[in-house]
Design a protein that fits this description.
Number of strands: 26
Radius of gyration: 24 Å
Bound molecules: iron/sulfur cluster
CATH topology of the largest domain: Rossmann fold
CATH architecture of the largest domain: 3-Layer(aba) Sandwich
Helix content: 25-40%
Number of helices: 23
Structural class: alpha/beta
Strand order of the largest sheet: 5-4-17-16-15-6-7
Shape: globular
Largest sheet: 7 strands, mixed
């Protein structure tokens, strides 16, 4: 799919895959992309790239791409290609009919972490202003919503604390539930470089990830903890820090709420939180836990990096707060080389959250019940807004099955494949009277849609993405929109047809509105981004050129707040019928549900998902590498090819979720984080049996 030729022009833009946010020079001959060259001045990548960003752009011109709006009365009818006007009128009429019959709250929508800030902003605005409710949620619900909750509760804002460069100054890296060399390759390489230079690493992961196996890196500790025991692990480390006198008392006294700290100190000091008491639960030795705690507390600059292995648990939010507690207790926050750093999965998951995609928050993480904020938006938008939170994604599905939620706008997300318990999601989607899908492809979700609006690839978009280090990067159009209209214009027209007129002459104008209404974006404009290359929010009077490191002199909330983090085991348990725990992850060449990478030359490197099983568990079941195995959980069953491997410990199996046929989410459960409903993808009790299927 890569065209060869001599480029005649180039455009600087941003990779549309992971949350590292690498800058690229898109080199073109006319309207044909010739190559993507990593840009040496890119703030996040400094000229580096990975196999996805550099080579996997062919999906933008893939034959599967849909370029025409389409409608159909019933999901069993064939699609009918129509004009944009007809598709938008059709969608608006259906949405209005649903509201007339079933009430204001019977429709809503989901924003996409793959789209630009500007595109996300207009969708949430349409839902709040034109639909008249707060039924807006984002795909961050199923990945980093606990990060948003946990960091806001402890530090006061829902974002990572450092820039990527900061890792160059770390002496100790505590890496939990993340596999950066596969999932965030350019940052993973940077971390590896620092480790080769002598920094120490503590990896907390059930699986032996590359950073544990690399011969060039001596992992100081690999805590091969049992899936679902993260909070117990953190409490054990905290117990050692508190009881062995390793607390940074000066930092805590100056920077944190005293009463909350004392409550936390007393809690973690309890004997039940000691390494000796928790080692068996965690699946490691008390000595390893004690050594890890001492190293983190006394090894110099200690930085925590984490991924979905932290958030996608029933205690995801508790775990995020537990990590923040540890950083505050040891004073590892507010300078280079330290901090609490979520490795964000999608290119714009930070941005989609910043833009007000949650049902309880307006842009800038301000609660819809806050009268001052709501009035600010009401005045600017010229419409009355609701002060009560709307539905989260799982509530939308439940309400659809109940019949009270009947219309949905889905922006660039394949919820039928990516959300847990596929059968439940499919039943919810099938129950809707109007599902509008805005996407590049007729994905699994579109099978349930009544209206299809063709989306634009990142090579056609004008706007911004915000990466994991809060860096706002420009996304510049390298080519004209192939289907003839920007995504934000389609949304504006739908909003107008619904009765709330919206129009912007450009994406820059949308950013100006975001800046006007969002204090952390107050100084952001396309002109300033073009001048500076990129900006890390907050960008305001205090930080006119942005802030690479947050919470330097004070926390955003004033004083840091310790939270008591009681370990509560997940209700998903093994038994004799389901004796193994399934956990999931990603692989370097593929990306999420694979909608893009499967349509590029990268598909040759990972043509199917496989399930890793420990040699002992495989032998017990007569399974060999290459066998097809049936994987059954309490929710459903699927078939995968087996790979016998000691990368997983005995009792744990692991698979990826890049291919729809393997349907990993057919078997994942409905369990979710207590605070945010982020699904517990990482713990599913399963049984494996050899399948008769060839
Ligand atoms: Fe794209 Fe992430 Fe690879 Fe960078 S590391 S090129 S952002 S996929």
């Amino acid at each position: 799919q890569v065209e060869h030729g001599i480029p005649t022009r180039e455009v600087i833009t941003t990779c549309a895959y992971c949350g590292v946010g690498c800058s690229f020079k898109a080199e073109l001959q006319g309207e044909t992309i010739v190559r993507m060259t990593p840009w040496k001045n890119g703030g996040a990548n400094e000229g580096h790239s990975c196999v996805k960003g550099r080579f996997a752009f062919g999906y933008a011109t893939h034959q599967d791409r849909q370029l025409s709006p389409m409608i159909r009365d019933k999901i069993t009818d064939p699609w009918r290609k129509v004009s944009f006007d007809e598709a938008i009128e059709f969608a608006a009429r259906r949405f209005k009919d649903i509201q007339a019959k079933h009430g204001r709250d019977s429709i809503g929508g989901i924003t996409s972490s793959r789209c630009t800030n500007e595109e996300v902003y207009v969708v949430q605005k349409m839902i709040r202003a034109a639909f008249g409710n707060n039924n807006v949620d984002t795909c961050a619900r199923v990945c980093h919503s606990p990060t948003g909750y946990g960091l806001k509760m402890t530090f006061g804002t829902s974002a990572g604390t450092q820039d990527f460069k900061s890792v160059d100054k770390a002496d100790v890296i505590l890496l939990i539930g993340a596999n950066p060399t596969d999932a965030h390759p350019v940052f993973g390489s940077r971390m590896k470089k620092r480790l080769r230079a002598g920094a120490k690493i503590i990896v907390a992961d059930p699986r032996r990830i590359d950073l544990v196996r690399s011969p060039h890196i001596k992992a100081a500790h690999h805590v091969q903890l049992r899936p679902g025991t993260n909070v117990a692990f953190m409490n054990a480390l905290a117990h050692v820090i508190v009881t062995e006198g390793l607390v940074n008392e000066t930092f805590v006294a100056e920077r944190c709420e005293a009463a909350d700290f004392e409550r936390w100190r007393a809690f973690v000091a309890e004997e039940r939180n000691s390494p000796e008491a928790l080692a068996e639960t965690i699946g490691t030795s008390a000595e390893i836990l004690r050594e890890a705690a001492r190293l983190y507390a006394t090894g110099g600059n200690s930085a925590i990096y984490y991924g979905l292995g932290v958030t996608e648990h029933s205690q995801g939010s508790t775990m995020v707060m537990a990590m923040a507690n540890l950083a505050m207790a040891t004073g590892n926050i507010g300078r280079d080389g330290v901090g609490v750093n979520p490795l964000r999965g999608q290119n714009n998951v930070q941005g989609s959250c910043d833009m007000g995609s949650f049902p309880h928050e307006l842009p800038g993480y301000r609660h819809v019940a806050d009268d001052v904020t709501r009035h600010l938006f009401e005045e600017d938008w010229g419409v009355k807004l609701l002060g009560e939170p709307g539905l989260r994604i799982p509530n939308m599905f439940a309400a659809a099955i109940d019949g009270t939620y009947r219309g949905m706008f889905v922006q660039g997300e394949d919820i039928a494949q990516s959300d847990p318990n596929t059968a439940h999601v499919q039943a919810a989607l099938a129950a809707l009277d109007c599902l509008v899908v805005q996407d590049l492809f007729l994905n699994e979700t579109a099978a349930y849609a009544h209206v299809f609006l063709p989306g634009t690839s990142f090579l056609e978009k004008d706007g911004t993405f915000t990466n994991a280090e809060r860096r706002i990067n420009r996304v510049r159009p390298a080519m004209k929109e192939k289907q003839g209209m920007s995504e934000h214009e389609m949304v504006c027209r739908l909003s107008t047809a619904m009765g709330y007129p919206m129009h912007y002459d450009s994406a820059a104008e949308i950013m100006d509105e975001i800046a006007r209404l969002t204090p952390s974006f107050a100084g952001v404009s396309f002109a300033k981004l073009d001048e500076m290359g990129s900006l890390q929010w907050p960008v305001n009077a205090e930080y006119p050129d942005g802030a690479p490191i947050m919470h330097m002199d004070r926390f955003v909330r004033g004083h840091g707040r310790f939270m008591v983090t009681e370990y509560v085991p997940t209700t998903e348990r093994t038994n004799r019928y389901y004796p193994l725990i399934l956990t999931t992850g990603r692989i370097l060449s593929q990306y999420n549900v694979g909608a893009q990478t499967r349509r590029t030359e990268n598909s040759q490197w990972h043509p199917e998902d496989v399930i890793e099983i420990h040699p002992h568990d495989a032998e017990e079941r007569g399974i060999e590498t290459g066998d097809m195995v049936s994987v059954g959980s309490r929710i459903g069953a699927t078939t995968l090819r087996a790979r016998v491997s000691d990368r997983v410990p005995q009792g744990v199996v692991h698979t990826t979720f890049h291919h729809p046929l393997s349907g990993a989410n057919v078997i994942t459960t409905d369990n979710s984080d207590w605070a945010t409903n982020c699904p517990e993808y990482k713990v599913t009790a399963v049984q494996l049996t050899r399948s008769n299927q060839p």
